[in-house]
Amino acid sequence: MKKRLIKMALSLLMMVCVSACSSNAETVDETDIGETTMIMKIGDTKVNVDWEDNQAVAALRDMAREGDVTIQMSMYGGFEQVGSLGQNLPRDDKQTTTTSGDVVLYSGNQMVVFYGSNSWSYTKLGHISDKNAEDITDLLSNGDVTITISIE
Q1: To the nearest 10°, the Cα dihedral for 118, 121, 123, 124?
Q2: Are strands 45-47 and 49-51 parallel, antiparallel or unpaired?
Q3: What span is annotated as the signal peptide, if there is one (predicted)?
Q4: Domain spans of the chain?
Q5: In this predicted model, what pLDDT tens digit does every residue of 46-71 receive, in sequence order?
Q6: Architecture of the domain made up of 37-151
């Protein structure tokens, strides 16, 4: 009789544990535990960026948590804007052919935003997702710009 009661109690305990882990359990969204949104502006124009999930983006997010990151960009090569971040970020450079809207890390300490294409070894940071190639060219090809990265 005791063995039967112990088996029933263990079975009941297992059912409670399994139900607590089931798909009906409430999940916690990352935004509920302090995750923040990183925003990029080109001049006064806010652009949506699909940020990569890598150490360089995490380090950039940490910089932005301490205050807005302002990057003075310069036109280069007729297809990109380049600017110093003022510090090195973790690198995971891979040979890449960029497209308009790509945001990359070059040499560990420079952000590059493309309005054309180039092949080089970069760490990808993200891609501008709410502008087409023509809009990105309009934002970036008419002289040096200031980019601001902030946390919302």
Answers
A1: 30
A2: unpaired
A3: 1-25
A4: 37-151
A5: 999 999 999 999 999 999 999 999 99
A6: Beta Barrel (2.40)
